[in-house]
Structures are given as C-alpha cells and as structure tokens.
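Hi everyone,

Forwarding the result from last night's run.
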Amino acid sequence: MRKKHKNILFITADQWRGDCLGCIGHPVVKTPNLDQLAKQGVLFRKHYTQTVPCGPSRASLFTGLYAMNHRSVNNGTPLNNRFTNIAREVRKCGYDPTLFGYTDTSADPRKLHQQDPLLSTYEGMIPGMSSGVTLTDNQLPWIADLITKGYDHSLNQYTVFDPILNYPGAKGRGATFAPPVYPDKDSNVAFLTDELLKWLSVREDENWFAHLSYLSPHPPWIAPEKYNNMYDPSEVPKPIRRESLEEEGRQHPLLKMLHELIQRSFFFNDKLIEPAALMSDLDVLQARATYYGLMSQVDHHLGRVFNYLKKSGQYESTLIIFTSDHGEQLGDHYSFGKYGYFDQSYYIPLIIRSPEIAKQASKKSVGRGTQVELFTEAIDVMPTILDWLETEIPEECDGRSLLPFLQGNIPDNWRTEVHWEYDFREIGSFQPMIEQQFGLSPDQCSLTVLRDEHYKFVHMTALKPLLFDLQKDPEEFINRADDPGYQDIMLKYAQKMLSWQMLHRDRTLVNMNMESGNLVNWKGPRILNKVGE
C-alpha cells in the first residue's frame, strides 16, 4: 500500500495581472485549466503583492515579510541572510525544494568573497532552494535545447526573442504581433514544463516540493504562433486612462516622471528608446492581445502538468498554488510595467487547491469552488504552506495562514485593508533621474499604500501624498489629498498606516523574557482584538 504523500506545486507566472483570469470574469482572456483549478479549490479575488518589481516582490512572497522588514527593495538589493524563507522552512520538514525557473534573489554580500559570482547578478536563487533548471535572463538552458534541436547556433538571450521579419498577416496589427521563429512546443514555457515533468516522473514514491516559475507573461511580449493570433486587438478592452498623457501626468509629479522614464524597448525587444507612454493606440491594443496570448500559452502548459499529476495518481496528494509576483499596468494610466501606486501593478491572482478540499467534493464541501472576497496578501502564501504541512510558522512572519479559508472558515480578526510599498531609488541604474529631478536622497524615494474598499491612501516619504475615493472614483483619476472635504479621512488613514507599521515591526525576540533562569516566550497572533476601529 502506498504511503501517504503531501506534495507541493508552487507556481508563479511573472507579471500576471489579477483580473486576467476567465474565472474572475475577464471578458476576453481564456484560461480553462486555471478556471478548472479554481473550481476545485479556492479563488482569492482581492489578492495583492507587497511591492514591485520582481526581486522585492518575490522576497516578500518567500519570506512572508513586508518590504519595510526584509528591505530588499529593488532588483539587485541584497536579501539579508538572517531571514528564513519557505525553502529553508520546508527543508525542516524533510523536503528538498526544487526550482524550475528563477527567484531573482540578490545574495547577502557580507559573508561572500568579493569575487564570488553570486555578487555579479541580481538573479540568484533563494537560500535553501535546489535547482532543477535555473532559467534566468540569459535563458542558457533553453537556448542550448533549441540549438540541439537544430536552431541557429548564433541564438543568444537577445536574439532568441526576435520576431519573424516580414511576417505575413501583420498588416493592421501592432508591433508585438509577429511570432518568434520557434513554435510553441519549443518555447521557453514548453521547455520549463518539459523539465518539470521529467523531474516528476521519477518522484512518484516520495514527497516533493517543486517551484515552477514561468517568465511569461513578463516582457518581451512575443508569443509563438497560435497564441500571437489568439486575440484580436480590436476586441480587447481599452486601457483605463485620461484623455491625454499630459492630463494624466498632472495627477502627481512622480507619475509624470515615470511616464518619461519607462522605455518602449523593454516590452518590444527593439532598439527604440522612447517612452512607452507614447505608444500608438494600435500598439497598445496589440500589446494587450499579445500579453493575453502569453497567458493562454501558460495556461495550456499548466494543463499538461495537472493532467500528468492526475494520470500518475499524485493530483490528490498535491497542494497546488498559482500566483504571480506582481501585476502589469498594460497601458492603464498611460503606463506599462509595474511601478507607482496604481492597483494594476499590485493586484495579482491567487488560486489554491488542496487535496483535502477535493476529498470533500461529495459532501458539498464549503471550501471547494469558494471565491474569497476578503483582502489577502502575497505574504500569506508562505505561512499557508507551512500551516498545511502542520509545522510551525516563524515568529518573524508578517503574513497569516489562509488555511482556514481552504477549510471553509474565516480567520478571526481578518484584515480589512491591504498594504504595499514602492521604493523608486535608482542605485546603480542607468537612469538615476528621479533623485536628480526631485533633489532627493535614495532613502527619500519611497511610498506606502493603504487600500480598503472605500479609500486608497498613498503616503510618500518626501513628496506630496495622494488620496482616492474608490467609491466615487474607482479608476483613480482624482487625487483628493488637497480637498478640504477629505482632510478628516486623510488623518484617519495616516493614523491607520502608522498603526500598521508599528504592529508589524520585527518581533522575533521581543516577546521573549529571561527571568529566574528561565526563558519565557509568548507566542500568539499579532492581533487579538481590534481596538479603536
């Protein structure tokens, strides 16, 4: 008789907006496999990341810490080695967590030699994780696979995403329409999926933890045939934005500056050094169509993984988590990428399917197919996995376990708002213009957001704040911070933000006390009673 197994499949798809799922109601995007996963599990409809870009957001995801605590605030900012993370914690449970993709973790340099190669890249691996296949920006394992299949030996990390020149049918389409030279079966998404399936094929009799980390739908936006043509730009939703770029930029000086800095070449893989905010309407809509195509491609290959788990008998013993590191502006507010304070950069998907939910299907399970409407955060994923494994959640962790939701319950004193942070310093950047433009030090270049159902308060360290009335202005067009009628709201939300920061200071040692030869250690939730609300 086969022994009881508990496996974890932890999936991230880079830069996937939270509204881009069929099961959440998107009018265009087709994600049948993820929709089915949501029907069998729990869909968290109001899930937000804690920071951007990739490295900092993943630091929060893996450690369960807000950015104000882990302080890895940008791609290339080292993650302090003193923090534990999901990989280190599951090793204590006997797992060998194995990566397929990347984690964008910058190593702590203080205990490394200055010549250590780990210090030459921001794309290191989270401590404690083993490598199945590491696929970073250089794409070397995948490119090597392409070359062995007969593709051009001159392929490199830049040319591998080049589109086919003079591609037929491109007339009337935008700049991201043409596909690459390889079909879907030879794409980086297919390659990473193939490698995971090989690894799984020899682990049917052991507990395993796999972290599958896809680059798509992160730029460059180029989709293989079928997916490049799956969505017509004339039929995709138009971006949410003001009538003109100038009018949009008047909302705040930081937004205007970011409009000027973010370059088109990052998304199109071309040589045009111009602001993405100046893209033509057709190119914006085509970028959306291509982005959606990449999502459907990822969904297809996830279907391959789910089908393999079912056929091999592992599906009913595997906790499956699907999420992203951050969202994508996708032309909303004349912005592309992930930055600033708008929801689109921070709103991300979260679907969790646990075997326990599936086993209760015949009992009309409360958890199965549930859609949670309460606010959840990326920092909740790490403690959820540990809670499911019935192991201790570290005291330093800021996040809370979502396991009660999977069991059909609502945790006590659950949050009524979400929080995120954005650090816009440009240390070592080729464009350190923000500090220069505003005359700020790097430590002054940050903002914090508190968002609930009614209002969104954005506090900046050294620039003017913003306040949005989400009931009257869900598009976040009108800054109410200087409106006399909203000053009491401003004060209330500033106080709430301060209380949140005070509550989530590092508590690793503060609830310990040494007395009479004994170490007293109080353990419990950060919140027992919501006083003063």
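Confidence is low (pLDDT under 50) at residues 361-366.

Cheers,
N.
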